[in-house]
Structure formats: structure tokens, C-alpha cells
Amino acid sequence: MERDTIRQEIEKLREIIRQHDYRYYVLNQPTVTDDEYDALMRKLQELEKNYPEYLTADSPTQRVAGKPQDGFPPFLHFQPLLSLSNAVEEDDIREFDQRLQRLLNQNQAEYVVELKIDGLAINLRYEEGILTHGATRGDGTVGEDVTPNIRTIKTIPLRLLGDKIPQVIEIQGEIFMGKNAFNRLNQERIAKNEPPFANPRNAAAGSLRQLDPRMTATRELHLFVYGATLIESNLSPITHWELLMYLKELGFMVNPYIQLVSSIEEVIDIHRKWEKKRKQLEYEIDGLVIKLNSLPDRSRLGSTSKSPRWAIAYKFEATTEMTRILNIEVNVGRTGTLTPVAVLEPVNIGGVTVKRATLHNEDELKRKDVRIGDWVLVGRAGDVIPEVVRVISEQRTGSEIIFQMPSTCPACHAPVKREIGEAAWKCVNINCPAQRKEKINHWASRDAMDIEGLGEKLVSQLIETGLVQSISDLYRLKIEELIDLERMGPKSAENLIKAIGQSKTRELARFVYALGIPFVGSHVAQILTNHFSSLDQIIKASEEQFLIIDGIGPTVSQSILNFFSISENLHLIKELKALGVHPTQKKKEKSVKPQEFFQGKTFLFTGTLSHFSRKEAEDLVVSRGGKVVKAISSQVNYLIVGEQPGSKREQAIKKNIPLLTESEFEEKIQSDF
Ligand SMILES: NC(=O)c1ccc[n+]([C@@H]2O[C@H](COP(=O)([O-])OP(=O)(O)OC[C@H]3O[C@@H](n4cnc5c(N)ncnc54)[C@H](O)[C@@H]3O)[C@@H](O)[C@H]2O)c1
Ligand SMILES: [Zn+2]
Questions:
Q1: 492 labelled ligand-binding
Q2: Cβ atoms of 149 and 218 closer than 8 Å
Q3: What structural domains and CATH numbers belong to the chain?
Q4: Whose CA is nearest to atom 43 of ligand 1?
């Protein structure tokens, strides 16, 4: 890229970040999520690292963000409230540990591991044990004095407890709002036509920076403390842990999950654990904070202008990164669906290199206004296909190219069609090689027939050479034919034939999934084969028979019926059978899941149910191995009582037959599947 362009891009990115900083810190109205903001910041840091000649002192990377808001008196912190340097990779954390040991000339360091609470930093000043000031971090040096608001927070003592009261102390901690309180607050705001807060961190900040303390008092804020400056005191703790214990004695809430560890590997283990468990907490955390325990050693290490050297934020993996769109291609799926796909400048998202991201369909493409050459944020969550979250349109130069969906299939050049009400353009050619390729890829994939060695490249080769036209052709392949293919030796040809042979007796659920019926994923295929004992039964089943199955709705059942009404599909199944493909069904007792609650029991209904017709409810009981009778008798195990029950209810009570309300019944139905 040209140098000039790079400089311009860096400057544009800085301007965007400055705007976000202003909206976040001053207006308290961010327009992007923290994840998105962090992605922009990381991109800027990367560019400045690669082109240090363009690094300027006014770059947002070079300062502790945040500017005091008008309306609150300034408060000068005794010691600046710094930011934390941060890392996501394990190796960077090990490197942090190594660096400290080197600087301290030691070969082991002790750390306190704390949760990184996602709220806002606060500094509290106590003189002779009395709360005199509470201030936000502000720009780190000067914060906003929000004392009247602070005084409304119940977890903040107005007077310190115990008999070891320091003359003057400043205490730092994180003010936060729990997830439930946040949801309640947002519901109320929506009901009152007020804009909801973006996240709990924002809600906490917004609540604390109210000009009227009575407003703050209505918000459920809490404080965890994590540090202190003893300004005048007879005590001088020598470890951070001791200090935290002391803060507890003074009447503060210290987070219960703090841990003292003596090796960096323990820290990494704790991080792994919290990455999985963070959802269970009642408040949001975005990582851990690792702090050197020895206070004298901390003084020796000191701080940079931005952050202390003795601590690091160990953040959780990001799910969003910024990158550029090199091209937009169109992918043809196995049912002919055309999906626009962004080809990306490769980017590492949470440890995985992402080169392509889906743009879903034409409407999405237009809604997000994605163009070739655009800078975009790309998101990736777990195993989900990466997607373009949004375009950073401020970053445009004018040379971006608007993309048009093609009017013919990019694979076979047949016309494409978009049905009214459908989001997707489709290639209408049933002989489209791209569709065939995708059908076979799907057939061979791990969750389907799991044919080892039959990867996408080989499938393309088989189709292009004409050896394979349809799924059934796979089972007609001969070693001699395969050996002639490029990069295929006798050994791999033999292995492939063997792998194809082994797929003949896969479980029925895999076979059903492999057929590629729209809306029938692995899970639905499993439900179907649990319910029906053979493929023939599924093929012959009526809509009603599908609909009584839990987990099968009208869309799925319609799709199955359609699929088996198409003669090509039935023909394929017949051919496969003739070629020796005989999917196996698990034993009957497994195929019908044991329905513990209903199994073998007798049920009677009375009154009207609000969520089911009587017939539906009865079918649900029967499908779970229960029996339904029409009259009361000592055989009845439960009476299910709807609205306006009849005399059966009195009779059941007399006979000591337990009653179930509709919601109890629903609960059993759900837990029983
Ligand atoms: N969405 C937006 O537009 C936007 C704009 C600007 C900033 N931001 C967000 O603001 C954050 C940057 O803020 P930052 O500079 O405070 O950095 P930071 O959040 O990465 O780390 C420092 C902060 O961690 C907090 N913290 C929580 N638990 C702690 C503990 N146990 N010990 C010590 N500190 C603890 C403190 O408040 C401290 O100030 C980023 O997460 C960014 O996403 C968002
Ligand atoms: Zn086509």
C-alpha cells in the first residue's frame, strides 16, 4: 500500500476513535459495543506498530482516555488512576511474568488474581474514617467529584469500621450494576419510552453521573474495591493480599473470587476456568487482572505514563476484529442458494485466522451497504460462520466498489430466480455442478456420512472429470478409475474406496441428515429417527404424524413432505439401497427415549388447557409412553387440570390422586424430552 494512503487511513481511524471516546466518556452514549471499539483500537495499535513513523502524541493510543464532564466539580486524585496494559494470549501473560522476574532479578513471583469487573473505576477519599469524596477516574489525574451520588450506594461505608482507622486513605474500586438489575432498569426505560442502556457498564456509568443524586439512589449499584493509597496511616501492609484483607475489615466488599497464586501457569488455568464460567456470574467481567503481590516490589517497578508495570489485564478472547474486504464472491449452496461471501484480508479473531465471512443474502448486503474495498468489523462466535458485522463507512475513500448480485449462476450460468417472500436468489438448474458438489460435500461431511479422505478438492475433481454425477455414483467408484486422478496413488485410492464402503452402514440419523433436506439438521434428524423406526416410516409419514413430535414444527414437516414428494429424491434412495447402502437403526429401546415421568403411567384431563388442544396434550402424553383415559378410576396416576375443571377434580382429590396444573404439565413435557 502507498505510504500516503496508510497515513491517511491511520488518521481517519484515530478520528473515528476520538468520536467514540467523546460519545463514551463525555456524553455517556456510545454508539458501538466495547468489542467493536476494542477492535478499532487494536487495528490502530497494529498500524502504529508497523508504521512507527506515523505515531503521534495525540493518538488515542497514547493517552488515558476520558475527560471530565461539565456539571461536576473536579477532583484531583492523590495518585493518578492509571489504565491497565492488557493481553489475551497465554504467551503474552507468560512474557509478562518473565519480564517482572527479570526486572526484579527473582525467579518466582507471587500474584493476586482478581476478576476484571466490567463497571467504572471510582476513587473514594476518607479522612479520619469519614467519607469525604468520591470521584470517577476522569482523565486519570482529575476526576469528577460525584460524592452526593456515591453516598447513595449502600455497599459504600460512609464511616469506616474497625479500630484500625487510617487518618487519610484513598480507596479504588469498581462500581457496577448486576445483570438482573440492568435488565430490570432497561425494561422500565423501554416502558417509559427512554432509550435502554447498551450494557451494564454503561448503565452503571450513566447512573453514577446523574446530576440529581435521588436518581442515582434508585439504581442498584455496588462496589468491589481492589486497591488503596494509604496517605496518612500508622499501618503499612507489605502485600496486596494483606491490603485487600484490611479493606475488608474497614467495611468494604472485596470480590470473593480473588486468589493468591505463586506461578503464572496457575493464572492461565484460572483464566480458562473463568472463560467458561463467566456467564454464571451475576455481573459482567471481561477478563482477569493479574497483580504482583509484593508492594515493595511494585514500587521498584513503577509505572509508565499509562499503566503500572506490575499489573496486567488478562482479557477474554475477542470475537470482533477489523479488516478489509478484498473481494465479494458468490457461493452456490447445495439447494442452489446464492450466498454472497466477503473475501477478507486474513485476520486473526480469537486465535483463528479468518479469510472469508458470510454476507448472508442480497438484502443483508444492501442493508449493511458492504462494498469491495471497505474496512469492516468481522465477528466470529464459537463455531458459527464468521460474518461481516458492519462497515466502517467513515473509513471510505471513494474507491470502494458496489457489488451487484449476478443474474446468472456463477457455476453453470443458468438463470437465477428469487421467489416472492424469499431472501435468497437460487440457481434453478438441478444439474448445476456447484449444487452437486455441495450435495456431495455435505453427504461426506463429518456429521453426515463421515467419509474420510473425501474432501472438497477431491469432490471437485470427481465432478469435473465426470466420474461422479450424483451421490449414488460414489458407491459405483472403482479403484482403477481413481488411480488416474491427479495426486491419487493406489494406496489412497484403496483407502477412499474402503471409507466409502464403511459409510454404507452409518446410523439412520446420519443418513437422514446427509440427504440434505432443508431445515433438517443433525438434531432434527436425530429426533426423527428416535421417533420413527425406519426410513420407510419417515417417507410415508403424514403431516399430523410429524406435528405431534416435540421439536418438529410446521416448517420442518412441510419441508420433509416436499422432499419426499420429489421423484428424484425417492429414486436416489432406491438406488442407494440397491448399491448396498443400509443405514442402521439403534435398538428399539434406545430409539424411543425413555420418558421417565410419563412412561407406563395413566393420565386424565379435565378443563380447558390454554396452550394445547386436548388432542395435542393427549398425543404428547402418548408419545412419551403414557396412557390417557376418559374417566376417573384408581388406575389414574395424575389428573391434569385446565381452566374451569369439571367434577373430576373433586373426585380426584377424594381419591388422593395428585393434580398437575397446565404449567406443571408443560414443565414435565419439556424436561421429559
Ligand atoms: N463503546 C465505546 O464507544 C467505547 C469508547 C471508549 C472506551 N470504551 C471501553 O472502555 C474500555 C477502556 O477503558 P480503560 O482504559 O478503563 O481500560 P480497561 O477497561 O481495559 O482497564 C482498566 C480498568 O479496569 C477496571 N478494573 C476492573 N476490575 C479491576 C481490578 N480487579 N483491578 C484493577 N482494575 C480493575 C478499572 O476500572 C480500571 O480503570 C475498553 O473496554 C473500551 O471498550 C468503549
Ligand atoms: Zn448453477
A1: no
A2: no
A3: 3-62 (1.10.287.610), 74-315 (3.30.470.30), 320-404 (2.40.50.140), 433-505 (1.10.150.20), 508-591 (1.10.150.20), 602-671 (3.40.50.10190)
A4: 34
